[in-house]
Amino acid sequence: MTATALDDLPAGEKSTAAMALRAAGLAVIAVMVAFLLNNYLTFWRDWPGLGNLFSQLGWFGAEPLRRPLEDGAVTLGWIQVLIYVVLLAAVLAYVASTANRLVRSDARVLSAAAAFIIRAAFWSVLLIGLVDTVISFLRVEGLLAAVVGEEMTTQLGLSRFRGAYVHYPLIVISLVIAYFTRTLGFIWLALLVVVAELQIVIARFIFSYEQAFMGDLVRFWYASLFLFASAYTLTEEGHVRVDVLYAGFNERTKAWANTLGSAFLGIPLCWVILAMGMGGKASVINSPLLSFEVTQSGFGLYVKYLMAGFLAVFAVSMMLQFTSYFLSSVANLRDEPGKPAPPENPAP
């Protein structure tokens, strides 16, 4: 069997261990998706949530609610529980129906999913940054009313309106662009950060002109560059690591280190970010997103709430990539085909 882009083992060569490892990795992603769906339903759509449901039932030592849930709310709570059950059952059914599938094939799919999320996020911050900068410039110079009218100018001064009717449509457009493109644009975004900073310097020291939205744009793009590029950097082995021991490991020991590191350090870190950042309505990710939080500067960009969302994008993309890294390392330990070939002339 050659090390080509094969997806399946020959018929009859299925491995129970490989199926269990695939199920474990995909179950992590299924639980993450269920958690995000429940977070949306609980805090954006006012569903009861699992915590309130379990308190109502007195499970896991939870104190009963002071105001019991109505029957309809209890039903919605059970639907939220069912989301976890259905997704986990779907993972088990998928693994059972693809028993001969290589572990490395699932790793590639998860890595591609992380890349899609990152592409969409980069296009989003690019389009939103440019459009919001134009709106803020026209507002601060008193020109916006001449372009869109007085009523729309008032509406665009409200963060909820601008978020719902300007930012969200741009995010949808970014998802479409990301589907049809395959470049991640890290170099271009890094260049745009430099250009955004350069225009501040030129405007301040040559034209004595500076507005709050100019600095906001730099911070908006700078934060996205480093948080969104993390998953891609992990794929390319670009993260700085302490190589005192790792550099001397053989390929199999490196695979073990990456497997255990992903399972016990990387994936739990992502769960900590999601659990703490989205555990309640006042959590550090949920609260700004729910209120469309903006900075206190009068005519800055209305993107502070999106920057809180960067943490969620970081955690989700890294969860996908760490799980992909885990499965890929397991595949290396199993000597599956498709392993990237080492450089022909490695540096001494």
Structure in words:
This protein has 13 helices and no strands. Helix content is 71%, strand content 0%. The chain is an all-alpha fold and 348 residues long. The protein has 2 domains: 87 residues, no CATH class; 231 residues, no CATH class.
Helix/strand-derived category reads: mainly alpha
- Poorly predicted runs: 1-6, 343-348
Tertiary shape:
globular
Distance between the termini: 31 Å
How many helix segments? Answer: 13
Strand content: under 5%
Helix content range of the residues, please?
over 70%
Task: Work out the radius of gyration.
Answer: 24 Å
Calculate the mean pLDDT score and round it. 87
Q: How many distinct beta strands?
A: 0
**Count of all domains:** 2
**Could you give a short account of the major beta sheet?**
none
SSE series: HHHHHHHHHHHHH
Topology:
Layout: H1 16-43, H2 49-57, H3 71-97, H4 103-140, H5 144-148, H6 150-156, H7 159-180, H8 186-205, H9 212-235, H10 243-246, H11 251-277, H12 286-291, H13 304-333
Helix pairs in contact: 1-3, 1-13, 2-3, 4-7, 4-9, 4-13, 8-9, 9-13, 11-13
Structural key phrases:
348 residues, mainly alpha, 13 helices, disordered C terminus
Q: Quick recap of the structure?
A:
The chain has helices spanning 16-43, 49-57, 71-97, 103-140, 144-148, 150-156, 159-180, 186-205, 212-235, 243-246, 251-277, 286-291, 304-333. With 348 residues, the protein is mainly α.
